[in-house]
Amino acid sequence: MDDHSDDIRRPLSPRIEVYAGGGRKQWPDDLKAQIVADSLEPGAIVTDVARRHGCRPQQVHDWRRRARSGQLVLPAAAGALSFVPLVSESSPSVAAAPSGSPEAAVVTVELHGARVEVRGTPGLAVLSDVFVALRRTRSC
């Protein structure tokens, strides 16, 4: 006769693991921006990008919408150029200066409440540094 009493005495091995979540995951803006940038790469599929980063495709679409509206600042790609609106104002001091004089050139950039004036003929590296610094002021 078979005795199955041993089965009753053995402790059962745990088959279920319970994870106590702390609520919703908080995604830092810089990580959201990186995920959005990844999703905008040529050939990228939002579902695959979301799965790779452990988030939902709906979140990625929402973050992309926020990036388009300017609520989420994307990281600058190395060597990537972007355009900003140019506002031209004529002032008496600029109009009176000789047009061929490099000292007369003034570049004024206003972004996120910060204003920078660059006089003379700045190089591309200087202007790039100005835009990077202004972009950082928004994230602070």
UniProtKB/TrEMBL annotation:
<dbReference type="GO" id="GO:0043565">
    <property type="term" value="F:sequence-specific DNA binding"/>
</dbReference>
<dbReference type="GO" id="GO:0006313">
    <property type="term" value="P:DNA transposition"/>
</dbReference>
<dbReference type="InterPro" id="IPR002514">
    <property type="entry name" value="Transposase_8"/>
</dbReference>
<protein>
    <submittedName>
        <fullName>Transposase</fullName>
    </submittedName>
</protein>
<dbReference type="Pfam" id="PF01527">
    <property type="entry name" value="HTH_Tnp_1"/>
</dbReference>
<dbReference type="InterPro" id="IPR010921">
    <property type="entry name" value="Trp_repressor/repl_initiator"/>
</dbReference>
<dbReference type="GO" id="GO:0004803">
    <property type="term" value="F:transposase activity"/>
</dbReference>
